[in-house]
Structures are given as structure tokens and as C-alpha cells.
Structure to design on (696 residues):
């Protein structure tokens, strides 16, 4: 006496792997959907014509040559942190602490710039700054990694807390360096010691160059080296890695050292090439945004460049809307948030497929 | 003595803010969802509460205290629950990554609150809801006048006491009721819970949304009580949200620990201002910058100690941060 099995109206099945055109199509649809949502938001809140708003938004990045070059400058900062995070996240190590690692790198760079700038020649100063910012960033990444590898201490929350400790150190150092002045201003303003030289007209062009090299290097490292393979295996399954004879603790510690080191280097790039100063906002939340960049790109550094560009484009565009229509910059957070939600949600249609109950099967089930 | 009292009456309201945030997140995490959107949710709750108070007292001739409380609480909770609903839909139904979705929610919530906040500010640096503030900070009439004890124990707005009651109720709910047991089962091992006939989807959705609602009260309390009913564009709520997440770990996922843990965090947070004057010496301002890291340092120590001791009852829910898909094994 077997009861007839009722097939559910909707079943969800995991997809083995989606084809490349499908992946692209789903993501494009997600962005289009998000833009429609954003347009509705813009229309109902401000009553402006969304299309003309989007045109103004486009101007934010492409309006003038200077704007475009600023957009690229900010893009490489974001991309650099994303590159730093990629190996850690691929290993499923939730490094939420990029913000702190960047700050620590920036901090030692600034300290060396100010306190040793006049004592040693530039030929010594720059290598010294590079080595120490990389080392301090790596140490900041190593601390949580060590505890994770030894005792499985939760790294998401550990790295998050490390951000605030770094912020505290920076606040303290800035406080000492500025002395009685109300703000720190540019470091070594008079003699420009420790600033990147102008390269093709702008100091930050060196940042762009460095990040382009890093993009290729990290792509190669993750895809074609033994280390990269070990990271992938540990990320997929720690047990498999252990079974295959991979020293999981060693991989975790090594990968986080690399991740932190690149974040530290990013701190140096920000101080020497972009800001020429330091504050608690030097990382400016980019450490968190970069997580989203790395994750959405599935750790492909070239895709990361595209996503970073999209986010910077939105940020600049929202700034432009703000000044054109007297709104405020926070519109960019809302627009970015909606787009991120849509892209994150769209992953579902790449990883899973939905099977609706078909008529033929239904009849079969009722027999 | 007087600076000790000042310290306590500063620390307890501070603790109350993050206690709400942490209690909400505890419920959420017990269902296996790690919601890093707490700061965004607290922004949503705080802003919705403030906005409703602002419009109510500016459009009604004789605002009524009870209506004001009801209106602000309901709108604050609904707004933050909507934030929780976005998170739930993306992570539970669409199985998006929880960490990334949470961070996006923080960006979004902060953006929404500050964007619409600027409309209310209308050009000024801050705007205030004095009536709502007066309602929220109303003290217990007789008891709060009883000298030092009255000030430190009975001298707070009603939400500070509601938080304590809520913590006790949550403790009973999680540990003594069938529904609470089911909820913990879902967070520990959803596949087993599913096999036992528990509706996993519902047991993830409801706690995540309700938890977001509770966290949102923290934001509301911050704006209408702690911050004297003043809305200004600041990043302060974000830092409080992260601190609430830290508190969840500190309490090892137990609401009762949240009561003293939150006050301890409050004391540690205000350490930089009150300890030097209490001990009768002054410190340079750069030292106070360093002292501000103490709450975070303490959290890290707790994190390390709990992972070292490996006591089963102190661990996070086993399935924390992972999406559940029935057909996956």
C-alpha cells in the first residue's frame, strides 16, 4: 500500500558547472536589474529622470581626462587590496582585517618618512620603507593566521578586531606627529622626502604600474604554482589537503603572510603615491569593499579589475550626481548596496538550477 | 567617588546599546547565520526611530509619550527587520555567501540612513527630537533620587531595563523551551534538524529577522537616548555595531553573559576618560588613543582563550556561516 509520491512544485538542484556565456549573461542581467531598481529609487526619492541621472553619473568617471585618471588611481588602490585578499579567501580564510593591515603598512611608511627621511639618502629610504611596510603588514596578517592554524581560533572576528587595534595605533601616532597643530597635513611638505617621484606626470602612476604587475603576478601565482594549487586544495577541503600530504598549518600561515604583506605594500602606495599623509581613514573602508571585489570575481585578478572598476565608477558617479542635483554622497552607498545584493543573489542562478513540476511527471506520480 | 559615579552612568547606557546589538546577533547566530550586517541594521533601526520621532513631534501639537514610544519602536524594529529580511532572502533562499552579504548590508544600511538623514538635516549639522528624547530618558520617579545608588542603579531610561529583562527571557527561550532547542539544533546541524522534521528554512528566516529587529533597537536607543535624541551624520554607529559583534563572542553566545559583558565593555570603552581622573593623574591625549583599543584587545583574548580551552559549550554554533542545502552531502 504505497502512497503516491507527490512531486514538489519546485525543486532546486545543484548545477555542476555553468557555461561561460551563461555566467556572463546572468551577471549582466543582475546588473541591469540592479540599475532598474536604482532608477526606481532615484525616481521616487528625487523625482529626477533616472536616465539623465545615469548620464550625469557617467560623467563622474569619463567627464574629463583628470577625472578618469583619478578614477584609475582609486581603482588600483581597491584592486591592490583585492589582490591581497584573493589568496586568503580562496583558502576560505576570512581575512576581514585588510583595513588594519593596510593601516599598519601605511603607519610604518609614514613614521620612517618623517623620522628617518633626512637621515638617510633616498636610495636607502625607499627600500627601507618597502621592506618594513611589507613586514609589518605580513605580521598583522600572521597573528590571526597563527592562532587559526594552531587552535582554530575564529579568524573572521579576530581579523576584524585587529582593524581597531591598528586604528588605535594610527590615531596615537598621528596625534604625536601633529603635535599642537590641528591637523597633520602632508608629511615632509617642504622637502618632499619619501614621496614617489612624478612618473608620466603623476606620482600615483607608480601605484598603477605596481598594481598592474601585481595583477599579473597574483594571477600566475594562484593558477600556475604549487603554492596556488595548495591554496585551492585547502580551500576546497582541509581533510583532502591533509590526506594529500599538504601541511595545512604551513599553507595557512604562509598565505596569510603574503596577503598581509601585499596589504602592507598597499599602505605604502597610498602614503607615498596618493595621499602623502596618514590618518585613521587612510584605508577608508576599502578593506571591506575589496572583500566583495575578490569574492565576486572568484579570485580571478582580471575579473577583479573589472568589478573594482564598476564599484569605483558607481562611487565617482554618485559623487557627481550629488554635486549636480544637490543630493549627498551617501546615494553611492545605496546604489552600490543594491547592485551588490543583485550580483550576490544572481550567483544562485549560476550555482543551482530550478526544476518545475512538469505535467507528464505529475501524471506519472499520481498513478 | 563622583567621577566613579560619572563613569558608571556613562558605561551602562553605552553597554545597553551594544547589548541589544549583541542579543539580536546571538539569536541570528544560533540559527547558523553569521550576519556581519549588524552595523547597517543598527543604522536602519536608529534612523527609522529618529525619523518617526522627528515627524511625529513636528506635526502633532501635543505629542503623547506613549504614542511616541510605540511609533518609534515599531518603525525602528520594522526597518531593521527589513534589513534582516534582505539578508535572509539572499543567504537562505539564494544561498549567497553570508560574510559578503553582511558586509554589503552594512554598506547599504549606512547609506540609507545617512542619505535620508541628510534630507531631514536639511543643511544643518544635526537635527534633534527633544520630545522623544525626554520620553526615552525619563527616569524612575522616586528611586532615581536616592543618592549614589539611585543614580547608578535607577537613573536610566526604560530601555536599559527592558534590555536586562530581554536577556533573561532570551536565556529561558534558548535553553528551556522546545522552540529554542529546535533553533539551536538548526544552528548546530541543519541536516539532522531537517531529518527530525524541523522546518529549517523557517527556523533560519525568523530568528534572523527577529534578531535584526532586536539589534535595531540598539541603534534606536543610541540615537534617542544615549545621543540625546540628536541625529547627525556620523560613523559612530558603525563602530558600535562591530563592538556588538565582538560582544557576542565575548559572551560565548549566552544572553545572560551579555548583561555584565555589555557593562564591562562600557566601562572599558570609557576607561580612557575616567580612570586617569579617578586615580588623580592626567595622561597625554596620544595615550588615550592607545587606551581605546582595550575592548577589542579583551575580545581577542577571549577569542583565543575559548579556542584554547575547547570546552564544547563555549564554541560557536557548529554550522555558523554556512548555507544549508538539503540535497548536498
Amino acid at each position: 500500500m504505497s502512497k503516491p509520491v507527490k512531486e514538489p512544485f519546485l525543486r532546486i538542484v545543484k548545477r555542476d558547472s555553468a557555461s561561460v556565456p551563461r555566467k556572463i549573461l546572468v551577471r549582466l542581467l543582475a546588473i541591469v536589474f540592479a540599475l532598474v531598481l536604482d532608477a526606481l529609487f532615484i525616481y521616487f526619492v528625487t523625482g529626477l529622470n533616472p536616465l539623465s541621472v545615469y548620464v550625469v553619473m557617467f560623467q563622474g568617471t569619463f567627464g574629463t581626462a583628470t577625472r578618469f585618471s583619478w578614477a584609475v588611481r582609486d581603482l588600483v588602490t581597491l584592486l591592490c587590496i583585492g589582490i591581497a585578499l584573493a589568496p586568503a579567501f580562496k583558502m576560505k580564510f576570512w581575512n576581514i582585517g585588510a583595513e588594519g593591515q593596510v593601516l599598519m603598512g601605511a603607519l610604518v611608511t609614514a613614521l620612517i618618512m618623517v623620522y628617518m627621511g633626512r637621515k638617510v639618502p633616498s636610495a636607502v629610504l625607499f627600500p627601507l620603507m618597502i621592506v618594513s611596510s611589507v613586514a609589518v603588514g605580513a605580521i598583522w596578517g600572521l597573528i590571526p593566521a597563527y592562532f587559526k592554524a594552531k587552535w582554530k581560533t575564529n579568524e573572521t572576528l579576530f581579523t576584524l578586531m585587529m582593524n581597531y587595534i591598528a586604528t588605535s595605533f594610527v590615531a596615537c601616532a598621528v596625534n604625536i606627529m601633529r603635535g599642537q597643530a590641528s591637523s597633520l597635513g602632508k608629511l615632509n611638505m617642504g622637502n618632499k622626502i619619501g614621496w614617489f617621484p612624478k612618473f608620466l606626470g603623476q606620482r600615483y602612476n607608480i601605484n598603477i604600474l605596481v598594481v598592474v604587475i601585481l595583477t599579473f603576478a597574483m594571477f600566475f601565482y594562484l593558477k600556475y604554482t604549487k603554492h596556488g594549487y595548495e591554496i585551492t586544495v585547502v580551500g576546497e577541503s582541509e581533510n583532502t589537503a591533509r590526506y594529500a600530504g599538504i601541511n595545512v598549518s604551513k599553507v595557512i600561515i604562509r598565505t596569510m603572510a603574503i596577503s598581509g604583506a601585499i596589504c602592507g605594500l598597499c599602505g605604502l602606495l597610498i602614503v607615498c603615491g596618493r595621499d602623502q599623509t596618514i590618518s585613521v581613514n587612510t584605508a577608508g573602508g576599502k578593506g571591506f569593499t575589496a572583500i566583495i571585489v575578490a569574492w565576486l570575481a572568484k579570485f580571478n585578478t582580471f575579473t577583479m579589475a573589472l568589478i573594482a572598476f564598476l564599484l569605483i565608477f558607481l562611487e565617482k558617479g554618485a559623487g557627481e550626481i550629488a554635486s549636480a542635483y544637490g543630493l549627498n554622497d551617501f546615494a553611492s552607498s545605496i546604489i552600490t548596496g543594491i547592485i551588490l545584493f543583485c550580483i550576490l543573489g544572481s550567483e544562485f542562478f549560476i550555482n543551482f538550477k530550478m526544476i518545475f513540476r512538469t505535467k507528464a511527471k505529475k501524471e506519472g506520480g499520481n498513478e | 567617588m563622583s567621577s566613579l559615579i560619572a563613569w558608571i552612568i556613562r558605561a551602562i547606557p553605552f553597554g545597553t546599546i551594544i547589548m541589544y546589538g549583541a542579543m539580536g546577533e546571538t539569536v541570528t547566530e544560533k540559527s547558523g547565520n553569521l550576519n556581519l550586517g549588524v552595523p547597517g541594521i543598527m543604522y536602519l533601526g536608529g534612523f527609522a526611530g529618529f525619523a518617526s520621532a522627528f515627524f511625529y513631534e513636528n506635526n502633532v501639537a501635543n505629542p503623547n509619550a506613549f504614542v511616541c514610544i510605540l511609533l518609534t519602536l515599531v518603525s525602528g524594529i520594522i526597518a531593521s527587520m527589513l534589513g534582516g529580511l534582505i539578508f535572509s532572502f539572499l543567504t537562505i533562499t539564494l544561498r549567497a555567501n553570508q560574510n559578503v552579504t553582511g558586509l554589503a548590508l552594512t554598506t547599504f544600511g549606512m547609506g540609507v540612513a545617512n542619505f535620508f538623514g541628510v534630507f531631514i538635516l536639511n543643511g544643518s549639522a544635526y537635527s534633534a527630537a527633544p520630545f522623544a528624547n525626554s520620553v526615552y530618558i525619563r527616569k524612575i520617579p522616586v528611586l532615581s533620587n536616592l543618592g549614589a545608588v539611585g543614580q547608578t542603579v535607577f537613573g536610566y531610561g526604560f530601555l536599559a531595563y527592558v534590555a536586562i529583562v530581554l536577556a533573561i527571557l532570551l536565556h529561558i527561550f534558548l535553553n528551556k523551551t522546545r522552540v529554542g532547542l529546535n533553533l539551536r539544533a538548526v544552528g548546530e546541524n541543519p541536516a539532522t534538524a531537517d531529518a527530525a522534521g524541523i522546518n529549517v528554512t523557517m527556523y533560519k528566516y525568523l530568528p534572523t529577522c527577529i534578531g535584526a529587529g532586536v539589534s535595531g533597537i540598539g541603534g534606536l536607543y543610541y540615537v534617542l537616548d544615549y545621543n540625546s535624541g540628536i541625529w547627525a551624520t556620523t560613523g559612530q554607529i558603525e563602530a558600535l555595531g562591530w563592538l556588538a559583534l565582538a560582544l557576542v563572542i565575548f559572551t560565548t553566545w549566552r544572553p545572560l553573559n551579555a548583561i555584565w559583558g555589555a557593562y564591562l565593555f562600557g566601562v572599558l570603552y570609557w576607561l580612557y576618560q575616567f580612570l586617569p581622573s579617578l586615580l588623580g593623574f592626567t595622561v597625554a591625549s596620544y595615550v588615550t588613543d592607545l587606551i581605546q583599543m582595550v575592548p577589542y584587545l579583551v575580545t581577542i583574548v577571549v577569542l583565543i582563550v575559548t579556542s584554547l580551552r575547547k570546552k564544547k559549550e563555549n564554541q560557536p554554533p557548529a554550522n555558523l556561516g554556512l548555507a544549508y542545502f538539503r540535497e548536498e552531502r
About this structure: The CA atoms of residues 182 and 197 of chain B lie 10 Å apart. The first strand of chain B starts at residue 126 and ends at 128.
